[in-house]
Each structure stands twice: as structure tokens, then as C-alpha cells.
Amino acid sequence: MASPVPPPTSPTATGIPVAVRGLRKSFGDQAVLKGVDLDIRAGEVFVLMGPSGSGKSVFLRHLIGLEAPDSGEIRLGGELATSEGLGERYRLAMVFQSGGLLNSLTVAENVGLYLSEHRLKPSAEIARVVAEKLAAVRLEPSVAAKYPTELSGGMRKRVAIARALVTDPQLVLFDEPTSELDPLVALAIGREIVGLNHRTGATIVVVTHDRDLAFGIADRIAFLDGGEIAAIGSPAEMRASRHPLLQQFLAADFKPE
Amino acid sequence: MFQNFGEMLLLFVAVGRALPRVWRERRKVAEQLFDIGNASLFMACTLSLFIGGVLALQTGPVLVERGLGSALGGLVALGLCKELAPVMMAVLIAGRIGSAMAAELGSMRVYQEIDALRTLNINPVHYLVLPRVVAIGLALPCLVVFANLVGWLGGAIVSLLNDRIAVSWSGYFGNIRETVDFSDVANGLVKSFVFAVVIGVVSCHQGLTTLGGPRGVGRSVTKAVVNSLVLILLLDYVLTRVLLPFDKGWRF
To answer: Is the ipTM of this complex over 0.90?
Structure first.
């Protein structure tokens, strides 16, 4: 994928910084994260790359409190990610690899779920916000009445992004946002991510092994290898990195023999 | 096993603490009640009709031979309302509704829907578990009332039509009026409420802790049904023993 849009410069930084120190996590005997140290700046698009099974998704789940670390700490906006009521003080959102849409709800109910469950707006106002957010991710209004199982993979991802937008998030996490998508839809999703960052100034963390997406949208990229940060820097710095696995990762292209 | 039991207790406490929110979740409770009624009312009535009939068929000839045919109505009614209706309806609901709950929540877990709820700062216990446990807690005692009435009717039909029994309607139902206290029916309703909470908590717990893909969902469903049945049968004895002192009371 070519660079979807010019490198982002966030105009209104409402995002929050993320600081990770000595993060370790094992599942049984398998150590997945082996002491990750990382600083993600407020309002930047930060991409975490790495081969499959390197612990990228596990790292992302720690940021939003879906996993508890064995040791180490994560601070969101200066507060421990594990502290009580963090979700009420900071607006956090995550777009899952599968979309994570509730299949028993329509698209409109999914997108408006945060507002309706927390009773933040009356139903007429929720319907207006839902229509606005669906338009923001370039989905037709007719999609609102459909169920997630009636949508294509790309549309489900967009609905998931619309649902994340409703929370007016300060930190948005994307787990493999372009997996299983064709290059055109992947390009559109990449544009949505950068557009979200431009419009809201939210901090965005993307986990992917899609090189084109990573180098197209990132302010900075980190390369995770074997549960440790092997390299970190701007896209240009990463391209110039001499880390052997990263070089292989970037050079890997299918060539018929 | 002990970890499972501890987690279920914690879930039970969490549901108890969430009870003040139940009015807010009334729409979801109503949806669940509709689903439970739709899935089980016809089956519950059919099951009860035959249980009442079999009870009359097994005991009727023996009682009539000994000149105790007039006691048949009371025996069938007591057997149904204190024991068979609550236990059989609980077994039916565990198999029909508990398994569906475990499968639904298990699928939601596998497909990251529950994680998505958490990221939206929506508590899965409030959103998913509370409406299900409350609905099942309301539905099962209601089903037991239906089961009692239909079961008594099944017993009456067999008593009337079977040549070896031949107890009249008036004799059968008259004996029920003489024998069955309100406390006997209440006894069964208390049992059924406890069984309902057990089915709801066990099934939701299994669903919420599902690991792996479709095979994990299958495992959760099996465990939800088996664990519910084991707990129902264990608690049946305990509750029968605990409720014995309250046996005397208001008569129909």
C-alpha cells in the first residue's frame, strides 16, 4: 500500500501519553513479553510491528486493561492502567482484529452502545450521533439497520471504528486493522486512522504486520521481536535500521523462483 | 475445581451487588423472559402432564389395592409440588436455557465481544449476567407453578381413565385440597428459585470463562449443564432438609 496520506501533524492534541516500564507477561511456561520499556507521546500515531506471535496483541491488551502484567507498569496520562475507574477519567477505545461488534445488535445499536448504556444522550440525539459517525467512516445510512453478520470484513472494521469514535477517545488502539482486507479497503482504513488522529488529536497505537500500513501512517514505529523492543524510531530511521530480523521483515517479498 | 467454585461465588456476589440496577436493565430482562418462555413453556407443560400421569399410574393401583385410593390426589400433588416439579423443571431449564446462555456468552468471549464491552467501560456483569440471572430467577418459579397445575391434571386424567385406579375427579381434587398446604407449594417455589440462580450463575460463569475457539464453546456448554445438574441435585437434598421445619402452614 502506498502512503495513504501525508504524515500527520495533530492540530489539537487531546491525546494522552503512554509510558510502559519493564512489562513482563507469561502464559504458563511461555514468556510473551520480556520487559518492554516504551514511551508513546500524546497525539502521535504509534505503530508496533513484529512477526506473528511476537506479543503485539498481548501488549495492546495490557494498555487497555484487558490483561494484567506479571510485573512492570503501564501509565496512561500519568495514571496506572490498572487503577480503579480509569475508564471513567480517560476515554479509551479499542478496535479489535475481528471488529468485536456485538452480533445480536444492529450496526446503529453497536455504534450507539456507549452512549445508550451510559445514558449520556437521549435516543434521538444518539441516532443523530450514530448517523454522523457512520458518515465519518464513509458508510451508507442504510447500513445502520443491518446486523454485523450481514456486513463484509471491511465494513465491520469501519463500524468498529465508528463505535470507537463515539466515545470521543483520547487513546485509540487498533489490533491488526487491515488483516483479511483487500488493498483498497486497507488503504481506506489507513486513511480513517490518520483522519481520526488529525480530527481529534487522539493518541493512536496500531499493532500490525502490514508494512505498507505501518510506514504509511506512523509518526514512530517500534519493532517487537521475541517479547522485547528490538528497534524504535521514525519510519525513515526504521528503514535505515541494521537490526537483522527487521531488515528481513522489510525486505520479504514473494518472488517466483 | 475450587478455583471454578470461587469464581462462581464471586460472580454470584457481583450479581447481588448489581441488583439495584435491575430496573434499568428491565428491557433486557423482558427479552430474556420472552426467550425462556418461548423455548420452554410448551415442553414444561408436556413434561409435567406425563410426570403427573406416571406418578398416578405407579402409585394409584398400589393405593387402591390397600383401600387408600382416596389419598392418591394428595400424594401426586405433594410429590409434584415439593420435589418433582422444581427438580424436573430445573433440569429442563439447565439443559435448554443454561446451555444456550453458556454458548451465547462463550461465543461472545471467543469473538472478543465481551472484551469490546469492557473497552467501552460497560460491565459485562451488568450488561449480560444480571438480566439473565434475574430472568431465569423469575421464570423458573413461574414454570413450576404451571408444571404443578398441569401435572396435577395429568395425574387426574390417569386416575380417572385407568381401570385399576378409577378415582373420580372430585375425589382426586378434593384430596388435593385436604392435603396440600400453601407452604408445600411455596417450598417448591423456594427450591426452584435457588436452582434458577444456580443455573444462571453457573452457565454465565462458564460462558464468560470460555477459552479457545468453537471447541472451547462446546466444552463450556457441557460443563455448564453438568455442573448445574450436580449442584441442583446436591442442593435439592440440602434445601429439603432446611425447609422441613416450615412444612405446616396455610391450607388451600
So the answer is: no
The domain total for chain A is 2
Query: pLDDT averaged over chain A?
Result: 86
Among the candidates A167, A191, A217, a domain finishes at: A167
Segment 113-142 of chain B within 8 Å of chain A by CB: 113, 115-122, 127
What's the pLDDT tens digit per position in B131-188? 999 999 999 999 999 999 999 999 999 999 988 888 899 999 999 999 998 889 999 9
Share of chain B above pLDDT 70, in %: 98
Same domain, A130 and A109: yes
Do residues A114 and A231 both lie within one domain?
no
Helix (H) or strand (E) holding A33: strand A30-40
Residues B121, A88: C-beta atoms closer than 8 Å: yes
User: Between chains, do A94 and B119 touch, taking CB under 8 Å as contact?
Assistant: yes
Contact B111/A87, CB-based, under 8 Å? no
Q: Name A196's Cβ contacts closer than 8 Å, sequence gap at least 6.
A: A161, A165, A172, A202, A204
Measure B211 CA to nearest chain A CA, in Å: 13
Domain that residue A110 falls in: 102-167
Summarize pLDDT for A227-249 with one digit per residue, the tens: 889 889 999 998 888 887 878 77
Q: Please report, in angstroms and rounded to a whole number, the separation of the first and last CA atoms in chain B.
A: 44
Report the Cα B173 to chain-centroid distance in Å.
25
> Residue A138 corresponds to which cell in the numbers above?
464513509
Q: Which of A167, A197, A214 is at the close of a domain? A: A167
**Is pLDDT above 50 for A184?**
yes
Residues A110, A51 share a domain: no
Q: What is the DSSP string of A35-75?
A: EEEEEE-TT-EEEEE--TTSSHHHHHHHHTTSS--SEEEEE
In chain B, positions 174-213, which contact chain A (CB-CB < 8 Å)?
A: none
Tell whether A58 and A127 lie within a shared domain: no
Shortest CA distance from B112: residue in chain A: A100
Identify whether A1 is part of a domain: no
Query: Does B93 lie at the interface with A, CB-CB under 8 angstroms?
Result: no
- Give dist(CA B99, CA A146) in Å, integer: 27
Chain B residue with CA closest to A161: the answer is: B116
